[in-house]
Amino acid sequence: MKKTVPKNVLVIGSGPIVIGQAAEFDYSGTQCCKALKEEGVRIILVNSNPATIQTDFEFADKIYIEPLTKETLTRVIEKEKPEAMIATMAGQTGLNLAIELKEVLKKHGITLLGTSIETIQLAEDREQFQALMKRIKEPVPPSQRCTSLEQARGALKKLGLPLIIRPDFTLGGTGSGIVHRDEEFEPAVLRALELSATRSALIERSLEGLAEFEYEVIRDAEDNCITICNMENLDAMGVHTGESMVVAPSQTLTDKEYHFLRASAIKIVRALGVRGACNIQFALNQKNGEYWIIEVNPRTSRSSALASKATGYPIARVATKIALGYSLHEIENRMTGQSAAFEPSLDYVVLKIPKWPFDKLRAQRGLGTQMKSTGEVMAIERSFEACLHKAMHSLEMQVKTDFRFDDEKTINEWLQPNELRLLAIQELLSTRRMSVSEIAKRTMIHPWFIERIERVARMENELKRLKADEPGMALMHRAKQDGFSDQDISRLSGLSTSSIRFFRNQHHMTPVFKMVDTCSAEFPAKTPYYYSSYDALDESQILVKKKRRKIAILGSGPIRIGQGIEFDYCSVHAVLALKEKGFETLIINNNPETVSTDFDIADKLYFEPLTTENVLHVLQRDPVEGVLVQFGGQTAVNLALPLHENGINVLGTSISDIDASQNRKRFKNVMQRLRIPTVESGTAFTREEAVGIARGISYPLLVRPSYVLGGRAMEIVYDESQLLDVVDEALFVSGNYAILMDRFLEDAIEVDVDALADGTHTKLAGIMEQIEEAGVHSGDSSCVLPTVRISKEAMKKIRRFTIDICRSFHILGLVNIQMAVKGDAVYVLEVNPRASRTIPFLSKATGIPLAKIAASIQVGGKLTEYFKDFDRELIPPKGYYAVKAPVFPFRKFADVDPVLSPEMKSTGEVMGVAPTFEEAFLKAMSAAGHSFGPTVYIGSCGKWRKALVNAFREAGIRVLPAWSPEEALTHLRNGEISFIIDGIRSRSNARSDSALRREAVQRGLPVLTSAYLALQLARSMRVVRSPFSLVSLNALHD
Amino acid sequence: MSFTRGGVSAKDALLVLQDASFFLGEGFGSDRTTIGELVFNTSMTGYQEAMTDPSYAGQVLTFAYPLLGNYGINEEDNESQRIHVKAMVCREVTSFYSHYKARSSLDEWMKTQDIPGIHRVDTRAIVRRVRESGVVPCAVARRDPSQSVEDQVRALQSTITKYRYSEIDFVREVSVPEKKKHVVQNAKKHVAFIDCGGKTSMLQELLLRGMNVTVYPYQTSAEEIMRDRVDGLLFSNGPGDPTMMKKTVATAKQLLAEKPLFGICLGNQVLALALGAKTFKLTFGHRGSNHAVRNLETQRLFITSQNHGFAVTDLPSDVLPLYENCNDGTNEGLRHKTLPIFSCQFHPEGHVGPKDSNELFDEFVKSL
Prior knowledge:
The structure holds 2 protein chains of 2 kinds. Chain A is α/β, with parallel strands linked by helices. Chain A folds into 7 domains: 8-113, Rossmann fold (3-Layer(aba) Sandwich), CATH 3.40.50; 142-205, ATP-grasp fold, A domain (Dna Ligase, domain 1, 2-Layer Sandwich); 211-344, 2-Layer Sandwich (D-amino Acid Aminotransferase, Chain A, domain 1); 397-506, Carbamoyl Phosphate Synthetase, Chain A, domain 4, CATH 1.10.1030; 680-743, Dna Ligase, domain 1 (2-Layer Sandwich), CATH 3.30.1490.20; 746-875, 2-Layer Sandwich (D-amino Acid Aminotransferase, Chain A, domain 1), CATH 3.30.470.20; 887-1023, Rossmann fold (3-Layer(aba) Sandwich), CATH 3.40.50. Chain A contains 36 helices and 39 strands. In chain A, helix 7 (149-159) crosses helix 8 and helix 24 (655-662) crosses helix 25. Chain A is globular and about 75 Å long. The mean pLDDT of chain A is 92. By secondary structure, chain B is an alpha/beta fold. Chain B has 2 domains: 13-167, Carbamoyl-phosphate synthase small subunit, N-terminal domain (Glucose Oxidase, domain 1); 171-367, Class I glutamine amidotransferase (GATase) domain (Rossmann fold, 3-Layer(aba) Sandwich). Chains A and B meet through helix 9, strand 16, helix 16 and helix 17 of A and helix 3 and strand 15 of B.
């Protein structure tokens, strides 16, 4: 076939990480860019998310970090005149934009590569899709589309309960839900209509309780069609597939069932005319073999990322080549050197478990048709039990759940879909409270899986009987084969982990590493992608290349609030930097969505839990010169000490210095010695101690538990009664550790400093000023580079403090320092000797690859290779401003108060770049999805009211009357309010009821709960009157 | 079976290869000792279909997929009357199964039919071994506690050496003893099914298309078949070396110019030999559900189910290659330039595996 490879292609990214659309689109987008580059295509990339690999110059030629709106993209198209565009690598965002841009593309004669807009619309529009299914005789559940409550009532009559209500055109199932009772029906319909971009929703017979299966299909322009992977959801229909545990390949299907679903998938993909990748979801009645088509996604997806990592088959890469006109047999399978025209065969089991934010968001824990998880882990092993254990270890869960099954009602609650159900099932089986078949019946999980969990429970009971003097070779070996970690065995048996370890080593009981090769070893594989298993033959040393210096990089595990894609970005940069320097690199990680776990990023990929035991096993088989722990967030840093204690050479800042920075007492001593002010603080183990310390420090106070990520259970209290309200939970979360109490600096400005140091020099990488007042978690605040409100004197102090801190803690690589500024006074709040979440933002704003430089320094490089001037911090060139803004998941959690606090709640971030601060700020707000209409309601905001009213009036915004919250709610529902400012907390203003804020968020209106942020918004709206400028990173950094 | 659910059982079974390398695992199914040719299959489902496929006669089948027995054994998915593999090797067989059609566990089924199995061995190591040095004679046995492992391995090795795999006529063991006619209502045509070890679903495909089918023993003469007034012949799949099928090849040769002929798997090789082509033994064969072939007439790709150890080569000038394997480029089917004769090396009937190339049966029926 003739290939008409275009000269330049516009690639759309998926924007910030939100629930339902996470790192998987940077993974597929990056793979797409690599595939285009191989063909000599010039790539124009637009994405508002700076923490993406695809927006690096290694992967794209012209890069715009700009809001993903029709307006921006139209202007990029007019300026760059691309010949073609790819929109199928950016999730629902990409498809929606492609549909919105239909006319623009036509006007400029731009080809949409891959699957056509017509096919996308056909797959997205349920009525058209159902009509097509009926034509080709594929079964779809009966349904009716509604645009009004009136129509919906008709549908209810016709279809009967239970029903599922799905709004059209939303992300990750937002607003969809199952209705079981009459009284739930109308509110659910209204909400769905509200959330839909087209104000329409589908009302459909609920298939709740049936088994759910997915197939990943690829079709080329010559109608060759293959399936890459099938997947089985453990949770029955009724739980969103993104919320379900998923196993690949299917475990409970016969060959006939596997193939009739496969044949159906292929038939559908052909009928739709997909060119590229497509995901199809089926519901199967496992009592009679009846099946239904649930949904089709004609693009790369979270499932296609999982399927790629599960099989080793690079779906996004192959889909891109197909979009360029290649047929499947002309594309190479780079793992085996054969063609991409084959269906992967697995000789292992893969399990995905989602990671939920319930530890951060105080939301209802139930799972359903709406996604709540922020990320996921994947495990590969040779048995289901081992896979399950690996996935659990990868989740880094710190739950101490004491299941109390007092009565039937509690048992029933635990057996409903929730994130701890698996553990509850295990407990019920372990204590023989319930049988496999009873649990299967009540959870609607296939009995095969429940029986596997029962095996785990039985093994646990056996391990409880292990004896110290004679642990039992065979039992121990089986336990390890079943995936029990030394820590699990220790917890169950009471033996110490070190004695278990000693026993195992004595008996050579260590895992081997098996290869993921797409073909079950049928052909020799070329790509080194490994997982551990207690089996006989090790394959990790089969492909040893010429001897080079070798370094391992630890990844950051699942994406969660507080540890997002930014750390994967840094990990990938560390790998790339070391590869450039000629090192052999190993990466260890367990997140299937990310670029770091693409098989051709590092020289070797070990898909493993990030625990001491798993990492040590890798490094025992595959010894390295050193390990980098600075790039994988707190997950990796936490492994520094145990790895060091086990004789592993941890590179970068020393273990003792890491400890000095984290240990409050040692930290305070160093600060005192350096004459760096810190805020007064104390620690308490009891209520009484806390009250005493509070009196000594004086209010307001910041109260938080020790050793937690992202500010969990952190609170600001203004007086003793407030302290008493929060102290119990903080003590509970803190467990055996003390709670920390700091004086809270009211109305101060927080500053985030990132710096590089090599032992001789320190380079201030960036001083970022937070726009919100102090007290908002830095991950939840917007920030600007360079600073705008910090005095000269304070800046001098910030620079001196940073240099002194780097020297005293002997920082090697990156460090992140949080400071608070009040007037000319500067306080240091904390020092984190690792890459921070602002590194990608800073790298994009300044054009300097900070994580790469840090990695080079940790293997002996010097800062003088990269910098000449060490006096000044980095800032964006040409007098430009860069603003980072967070995005929040509140729309998915109708019961959570959307208010900023010291506890982190955001899932992702965007960046705006412009010649002025005000414009950069508004761009970032727009990229974060906020649009500010003509009327503002200013609610509860204490002392700030007057300033806010004046500021918005000056900006030409109509300030609505000071209604009571109840009145405001009515006006909100009437559509009179465009955005609200409410819930600003200060000494005089206790936080108001959250009902108004929650409802506004559900209606898609911006809700501002920070006075400084609101004032900045008003100022920016007043100053910026013309449309945004279009800024490419190329123009900024040329 | 030695499952102590959740507990630990002893390594009580052995898989010994001709060169005395061995794998220690746990036995299931029958506890007798057996000898056969060690092969592997990479399909992730379909153990029941594969084990009852007569093409596997004489072979010890290793499943690359690690978890077997999950959905048990049912009454519908047999590809013949009985299990044809001599033994089964896998990483883990489960005693617990769950499926609405299931009637017994894999283990019980194998016990009933006296077929041994060994599990909890590193099957990936075995697959690599076969890939690297080719299919190899082997023995599966329970451990004899009265002997040391080394002694038992040596004893088994000498038994293996006496076994002449290439001299056994496996087709004789699996073909029907006498001809049998299957009649459908309102039959359109009558097809002769030359049973070299044919699968049930292959027969089903013809019946489904409204054909009366007579199944013949593989050594039936051309004259006898012609007497039955058939409209065309299907040469089925089957085990072993096609060059041992002298009589069947002769029958095919006699009928070349007489009737439409269609060959599948071993049947393809029989037709190829009858047309004057050659066959050779592949190092480790093609056994799986994911093999891509290309139709050389249309350039279309098909994912196919495969199970063969020999391949066709050196086609005469009046025969064109019809399909080609996308991986190793071996011939996957042929078509005569002028006569209504065509064949394929893969299994268009699926079971195990996909039925993407199912239209070949339509083409055959049309040619009658």
